[in-house]
């Protein structure tokens, strides 16, 4: 069992930055690739980005590529989402999620395959 707790959300003006954190419980953090997803009101949950369990492989949605960066600190059981040049359309609840990985480079953008989810943190970008 893995528990995930996100933090770092808030209200920011367009063009600003936020860094989200997600801390995982347990001693198996390095067995999981970690993804970020987001969900706006009335919308489906969308993929944002993912990082492999080793940190060597990342993948981003086109809508955030070049603005958002995922990183992880395996010693701290933490994954980060650095969000720069924020836009009003980035407003959503952001979720981190863990997917069991059997290779160091495995990543997935399919939310249905993820094993564990955090409770989410709200990000609001004002225009």
Helix residue percentage: under 10%
Question: Which structural class matches the secondary elements?
Answer: mainly beta
Radius of gyration: 13 Å
Main sheet, how many strands, which sense, barrel?
Answer: 7 strands, mixed
The rounded distance between the terminal residues' Cα atoms is 40 Å
Described by the principal axes of the CA atoms, the overall outline is: globular
Could you please describe the fold and organization of this structure?
The protein is an all-beta fold. It is built from no helices and 11 strands. A hairpin with a 4-residue loop joins strand 7 and strand 8.
Summarize the structure.
With 127 residues, the chain is mostly beta strands.
Using brief descriptors, characterize the structure shown.
0% helix; globular; 48% strand; four-stranded antiparallel sheet; 127 residues; seven-stranded mixed sheet; mainly beta
List the helices and strands and how they pair.
Blueprint: E1 4-7, E2 10-13, E3 18-24, E4 32-39, E5 46-51, E6 58-60, E7 68-73, E8 78-83, E9 92-100, E10 116-117, E11 121-126
Parallel strand pairs: 2-11
Antiparallel strand pairs: 1-3, 3-8, 4-5, 4-9, 5-6, 7-8, 9-10, 9-11
